[in-house]
Amino acid sequence: MQVIVRDNNIEQAIRVLKKRMQREGLFREMRARSAYEKPSEKRAREKAEGIRRTRKLARKKAQREGLLPAPKRKVAARPR
User: What's the pTM value of the predicted model, to 2 decimals?
Assistant: First the structure.
């Protein structure tokens, strides 16, 4: 993974790196590999993730079909 530092702005580059790592699931994977996970715990976690993913897809589909209201858009604050 590579992040370009512009104008010696290291803070911004670190924020971008953290966001990319979060999106790739790197933090979750590091936490999972830090300790042994029992097979029963792994099955329960994977089942819960599948349920969460299915509910999210159903929610998105209902929003597209107009059965649920669309989520509110976040307004980004402009830097001064």
Answer: 0.58
